[in-house]
Fold this protein.
Amino acid sequence: MIAFDEPAADRLLSVEELRVEFSSSSGRVHAVNGITFELAPHETLGIVGESGCGKSVTSLAIMGLLPKPAGRIAGGQVIFDGTDLLTLKADEMRELRGRDLAMVFQDPMTSLNPVITIEEQLVEVIRAHDSKVNKAAAHKRAVELLELVGIPNAKERLRGFAHQLSGGMRQRVMIAIALALHPKLIIADEPTTALDVTIQAQILELIQRVANETGAAVMLITHDLGVVAGMTQRIQVMYAGRIVETATTRELFAHPRHPYTVGLLRSIPRLDLGDNRALIPIDGLPPDMTRERPGCPFAPRCAWATDQCLVEDPELSSVIAGQRTVSAGPEATHRVACWNPATDEEAAQGAPASGHVSAITDSTQARAAAAAAALSDAP
Amino acid sequence: MTMTVDGSTTSGPAGAGAPGDGPGGDRTLLSVSDLRMYFPVTQGLIFERHIGDVHAVDDVSFDLPRGETLGLVGESGCGKSTTGRTILRLYRPTAGKIIFDGVDITRLSGEALRKTRRRMQMIFQDPYASLNPRMTVGGIVGEPLAVHEIGTSAERRERVAELLNVVGLNPNFLNRYPHEFSGGQRQRIGVARAIAVNPELIIADEPISALDVSIQAQIINLMERLQDEFSLTYLFIAHDLSVVRHVSNRIAVMYLGRIVELASSDDLYAHPLHPYSVALLSAVPIPDPVIESRRRRIILKGDVPSPVNPPSGCRFHTRCWLRDRLGNPERCTTEDPALRTLATGHEVACHFAEVVDNSVEQRQAIGVPIPVVVGGPTATAAPPEAPQA
């Protein structure tokens, strides 16, 4: 177990060695493989990764919303505000969910109920947790909430249905529902992925504003490094159900260490750089999570991989000036799970320093050579 | 059969001679003028009364030179996909002209249209929906060859294997089905199908937005490599400005069926002149917290108005931040701004584009540090890259 130096009082959420499995027809899927992290009150944490990396499953596990019976928590603890959520009974968890823990889902089209009014959905949440609130007070609160999230003509909108709203407006309603009971933690799972970019800007600004105003901590889950760059204090990069790198936002972007983080940064075009910078794709495919194989899960796609990476699984540990050391000092908040982390120069060029011989044969190069040969062979 | 550098078929059964091979030296491959595509809105079940039109594409004009990439960006519903599909003549345009390689294809039909389509192909957004799950990869990639009756079936098979190789797939996968492939591999199959008949123009409609981040670059790089190898001309439709800027020579920004700005990709980024383009640029997150901290987003009010009943005058006036700042000038609501060409070759459809240039909003949108010296937008006292803590 990694020793954290922050005092316990500074933790709103602490997840320890969480493991989640799914049973499927093709075998057991190891969706989350022992992740440990924590979140301070009022903090905004970004969790970044691609589809299948376990970022959404992590949030569903925290919320107690894993699909049953396929999903199963195979181990670990989720301590929220002093209680282990995994030991709570269903009705105790239901009490907490919505009140202290709220969630905003990706798809505002399907997460609202199409057959009841917006008001009923808001009032339902408000009264479910406090039956003493009368209808008039709940209505008043619903109007307040819609105004808080910037929906014009809140009173009329309350009488409407979800289908009468645009995607951005629906997501605002979802955020209003999440905020209804002053939660301490809001988990936003890809809250803007289904939205247009100008609407995305509106929603991100809204999340930031309500987090500031209500003092809620936010876990922002996304595949878009751009979204977390401007919004979060700290970032965790996930791959294959593990946290492969974590650091403060500035540190992570200034000194990415894990080859996967470097790959993510170098494989997306940047608006401000245009085509002045070549894209370096991450080769290969995301791992098959049904198979447990030895070594680092990223090794088969990693240009930095050494023989050690193929057999030994690296643990998440501190990075100081590019050197792996075991330290618990205050500078140790940048952690990486890698045997051969990238240096600043390597991160800038997006490839290992010349002279490094990857343990992996570069299949892209092999394919490109084959393609070129095929073309030149043609009559 | 072989693919030559100029993209035409020199040998093999495909034959050149598609209709209207056009004037040889003409650099413009595609020229669209005043293109309009309206979709009728009807009411009533038996007697469908025509009660209005969705103005999906309204007076769109642009030229696309051979070998270039034109990016078409805009939010959902702005008409960018409809523009692409209308150019392919998947719809019958309401008005306007589409000139492909010197030949007006606006009203072509039947055999002549089919022959023209051999020279323009499409790559679709969703690699899951755009491949027939009951056909093998060989069948899918070979279908355009079969439709256009190119080669014998043995030749086609050989060609399909070659195409798979070109797009970076194992040619032995010929007999597999789409479900056996990942999203990125499926998109490679879609690309192979599009280049199968040696087209000159490829319309790529959001080709990477359904893919995982780490896979997107593979497809972008593949498309760029194929463009160089086969001199392809791309119309690249996407909502993601960072991607469009990376792949395009020029970019057209669309809003509610109109092109509001058209400029070279670097110029559009450095000097966006339409208030909508500035807002759009400002909304695109840049994965760098240092740059992000000195940018300021322009949050547009509300949603895009309905294309059935677009706003009067300038279509953007209902959400325009510049109109607010200028004290709501009358002209924006009464006079529809035409796309005008400035001295720099930059085209923009805004009455007040000059005010936008070098404005604080423009600089904040792209994250250029604001000059410290207060004294007009042209002050150059600040260093271009002020170091941040």
Remarks:
- Residues 109-180 of chain A form one domain.
- DSSP finds 13 helices and 13 strands in chain A.
- Chain A touches chain B through 53 residues (CB under 8 Å).
- The CA atoms of residues 94 and 352 of chain A lie 49 Å apart.
